[in-house]
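User: Run a structure prediction on this.
Assistant: Running it now.
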Amino acid sequence: MPGAVYGKTRKEVSEKLTKAMADRDGGLVFEGGSQTLAVFLDNWLDGSVKGSVKHSTFESYERIVRCHLKPELGRRKLKTLTPDHVQALYGRKLDAGLAPGTVRLIHAVLSRALDQAVRWGTVARNACRATTPPRPNSEEIKPLDAGCARRLLDAASGDRFEALYVIAVTAGLRIGELLGLRWEDLDADAGVLRVQRTKSQAKSGPRFTAPKNGKGRASDSPNAPSRHSRPTRPPRMPNGSG
């Protein structure tokens, strides 16, 4: 027989009881029990997230859980977590001065964890689905105009990282992709730069992984440094490889 069922009216209790019995008879039994959100999140990180995402992503998730979710909601039983608990968390974080983007990240991590709880049959629904995370701040990107780009490259002339600055201005790569470049990725004769790895920073040090799309790509780079400009001893990228 299902456990206690509560409602504001006799009709609501009857409907909930009927549904609970139907779920039981259909083999749908949720095992949340007395498990707290903190315990579930630790199990989720170790059993589901670790090894399935980049190391830097895992560290980001673990930091969100440790610094924001467990202190605020960790003692609450998983089965009693409701949308209003989660929505109130967002409000407290905004009031504490966190940027909307950071609160949206908290929402994303918790929602992913609760999606897993639903798939595991631990809870019936994801409480985050009925919440409204804050809108991100829309910051206008102001790229360098031709004059500013020219002045930047003039200032970088002769610098040991001049090649990196030239590619940064002309190739449109992400920062991690720029820092993951090696000289062998450049075919100066063809004017092609191959993006084959990205650099990220983890607690254990720098890590080089496949680009965001999971595979490399080629970028036309007519302004890339030519072979004759390559130094005899190429400079090391910051915390990276030469």
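Helices lie at 10-25, 37-49, 55-73, 83-95, 100-119, 146-156, 162-171, 175-179.
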